[in-house]
TrEMBL record:
It is found in: Cytoplasm. Binds 1 [4Fe-4S] cluster. The cluster is coordinated with 3 cysteines and an exchangeable S-adenosyl-L-methionine. The keyword Heme does not apply. This is Dual-specificity RNA methyltransferase RlmN. Residues 131-374 form the Radical SAM core domain. Keywords: 4Fe-4S, Cytoplasm, Disulfide bond, Iron, Iron-sulfur, Metal-binding, Methyltransferase, rRNA processing, S-adenosyl-L-methionine, Transferase, tRNA processing. Pfam families: Radical_SAM (PF04055), RlmN_N (PF21016).
Length: 411
């Protein structure tokens, strides 16, 4: 699910920094340990004739101390380190672009895959709340997206491919590492406090890779995050919501955006396959699965505010009716128009009036704040801008080479 942060893209090119990802360079034949779950890594070590507990040791080096060089893993014997060096690697996706905002927001564009590869983006948003300082990372699960929601910049790029577990968890690894790169290994700690699977792509359509990445997020030998601080956001792939309920206990968010089927069919076309009644019933089953002790006390409802489209008083009333039997918190997202977007952003007054209707009826309803204005763009836009810039640089290089060739033949 793509988030729709409210941002502008001013001076993008001046502010960008070129980046070199600190990874072990390795041949394609090496096994990348970064995305492996604990059971997979235990099996890997057993197959090497080693004890299972090595998996936990190596996981801590990778995910808690952000070490990519086996030589630094001091509690592993020299012989095993040498062996690992020969056959494995710890490789995060390459950072091709990063921007750090004055307000603490950080944004990365990663290249995934071989050669020119494809681009995905990740954004980190800091905030203060009653539990202290939060750093929430919005992670992508696919390159592009097949679901083509009409307000979404990522959807306009079409679907290219699913991300692997290493490419998904690599986004979290890199965000943590970005705070720790100058810190001595022994003093490093995990900085990202919350994760939302809400970047590019529909996470439930890349189910296995997303599930195993979220298991790593919760694993005490990896990121050890609280299950209430890991949220999966979906546009409503109903059968997969039921499967998720069986497989893992994390928080659920629904990218709803419309309070009736007619409008939702237009904004979120997967609604034609899984209409609202089915979706709400799936959310109720999800919450019923584990009771109050779990991360499933409520569902977060994401609702992008589109001027004159879904922001009228009757829409607020319809939303109240739709959610009356679903414990939910509602997050209103002011739309960030992208080039050729068919919608505009609702006025501040309209958003506040919408919020008041929902709050007066007893719902916790918040308006997403504008963050990272000096660096950001709506989800999916930055990738487009970086791709354009790369294309222009390539064209320029070609032109220069042609000129040089002409001069050489003339001279
Ligand atoms: S097209 Fe829809 S499901 Fe896909 S990333 Fe955009 S909002 Fe999410």
């Amino acid at each position: 699910m793509s988030s729709v942060a409210v941002v502008s893209s001013e001076n993008l090119y001046e502010k960008q920094q070129s980046c070199a990802t600190p990874v072990v360079q390795a041949t394609a034949a090496k096994v990348n340990l970064l995305g492996m779950s604990r059971p997979e890594l235990e099996k890997f070590f057993e197959d090497l004739g080693e004890k299972k507990f090595r998996a936990g040791q190596v996981m801590k080096w990778i995910h808690q101390y952000f070490v990519t060089d086996f030589a630094e893993m001091s509690n592993i014997s020299g012989k095993l380190r040498e062996k690992l060096e020969k056959i494995c690697e710890i490789k995060a996706p390459e950072v091709v672009h990063r921007n750090y905002s004055k307000d603490g927001t950080r944004k990365w564009v990663f290249r995934v895959g071989d050669g020119e590869g494809s681009l995905v983006e990740t954004v980190l948003i800091p905030a203060e709340d009653k539990t202290g300082a939060r750093k929430t990372l919005c992670i992508s699960s696919q390159v592009g997206c097949a679901l083509d929601c009409s307000f979404c910049s990522t959807g306009k790029q079409g679907f290219q491919r699913d991300l692997t577990p290493a490419e998904i968890i690599g986004q979290l690894w890199m965000a943590n590492y970005s705070y720790m790169e100058d810190v001595p290994v022994a003093e490093r700690e995990r900085t990202v406090t919350n994760v939302v699977m809400m970047g590019m792509g529909e996470p439930l359509l890349n189910y296995d890779a997303v599930l195993s990445s979220m298991q790593l997020m919760l694993d005490d030998f990896a990121y050890g995050m609280s299950k209430r601080r890991v949220t999966l956001s979906t546009s409503g792939v109903v059968p997969k919501i039921d499967q998720l309920a069986q497989d893992i206990d994390v928080a659920l968010a629904i990218s709803l955006h419309a309070p009736n089927d007619e409008l939702r069919n237009e904004l979120v076309p997967i609604n034609k396959k899984y209409p609202l009644q089915q979706l709400i019933a799936a959310c109720q089953r999800y919450l019923a699965k584990d009771g109050n002790e779990s991360a499933r006390r409520h569902v977060t409802i994401e609702y992008v505010m589109l001027d004159g489209v879904n922001d009228q008083p009757e829409h607020a009333q319809q939303l109240l009716k739709l959610l009356k039997n679903l414990p939910s918190k509602i997050n209103l997202i002011p739309f960030n128009p992208f080039p050729h977007a068919p919608y505009g952003r609702s006025s501040r007054n309209r958003i506040i009036a919408f919020q008041k209707t929902l709050s007066d009826a007893g719902f916790v309803c918040t308006i997403r704040q504008t963050r990272g204005d000096d660096i950001d763009a709506a989800c999916g836009q930055l990738v487009g801008q970086v791709a354009d810039r790369t294309r222009r640089a390539e064209q320029w290089k070609k032109k220069v080479a042609q000129q040089q060739e002409i001069l050489r033949t003339q001279g």
